[in-house]
Amino acid sequence: MAASESKERLDPLAKTALWTASMRAREHEREDRLFCDPLASLLAGTEGPAIMQRFEGAVQPGVEDPALAVRTRYLDDQLVAQDGAGMRQFVSLAAGMDTRAFRLPWSPGVTVFELDRPALLTLKDELLERAGVHSRCEWIPLGVDLMADWTTPLLEAGFDRARSTTWLIEGLLYFLDPLECDLLLRQLSEMSASGSRLLADYVGRTVLESAAMASWRMRMEEQGHPWKSGSDDPQSLFAGFGWTVRVAAYGDPDVDYGRWGDAVIAPGVPGTRGRYLVSGELV
């Protein structure tokens, strides 16, 4: 199947991965870039930039939201640090067009499982294979439905539930309703050995439901991928599944990288929007 045909089979939510890849490609082109992602443009194709331009033109004209760049750099740093501390099993849920398996300096023996919609990962694999790109770790992409039985395919692919694992949940939780979010967190927690780590991003519920977010939510819903949930107490949310977490808001000293001081999302709207990054450990 040609890559163009695979792309046509992507549902609206899966196509957000092309949009995200285009934002990473834009960051890669900056002289002051926070990370290098030379594969992002390849994976975004022509549709990713078109989606990005349509959305930004409608919701945040003339404003480049720094959240994606900051989030990517922060999570990169966390993953590299956990690799350096001896973690060897990583699982990325809703991995999309993420290229960390190919661009981060993984240690020998690291396995990275990537889970997402089958059509999206098929397209990704086709594009990377055609470009002759090789991963820097043992990369295992798994096409699954995260709202169905994804744990069985993960185990069958070689996941070792007796080993500590780092779980990456990037750009996913707010697309789930509260029951779906709880189900996913319960499933991954049950799969986690002692010493496992978790990295995620989320949004505050109060802010999500505020007037400042109305145009964003409306546009996302129109495109077929609405934001459905948030949490004003993420520590308690994750603690309910056994995780002790630290929550950092965008703009905090270690979640800034020089980009957040004057950040805005749209004229008159502060840049944080109640968004934050979560890092934690299973207790």
Automatic annotation (TrEMBL):
BP-aspect Gene Ontology terms: methylation
InterPro entries: Ppm1/Ppm2/Tcmp, SAM-dependent_MTases_sf, SAM_mthyl_Trfase_ML2640-like
Enzyme Commission numbers on file: 2.1.1.-
Enzyme class: transferase
Domain of life: Bacteria
GO molecular function: methyltransferase activity
Keywords: Methyltransferase, S-adenosyl-L-methionine, Transferase
Cross-referenced Pfam families: LCM
Ranges in coiled-coil conformation: none
Transmembrane segments: none
Function: Exhibits S-adenosyl-L-methionine-dependent methyltransferase activity.
Family: Belongs to the UPF0677 family.
Classification via PANTHER family: S-ADENOSYL-L-METHIONINE-DEPENDENT METHYLTRANSFERASE YKTD-RELATED, S-ADENOSYL-L-METHIONINE-DEPENDENT METHYLTRANSFERASES SUPERFAMILY PROTEIN
NCBIfam families: mthyl_TIGR00027 (TIGR00027)
Protein name in the entry: S-adenosyl-L-methionine-dependent methyltransferase
Origin species: Streptomyces virginiae (Streptomyces cinnamonensis)
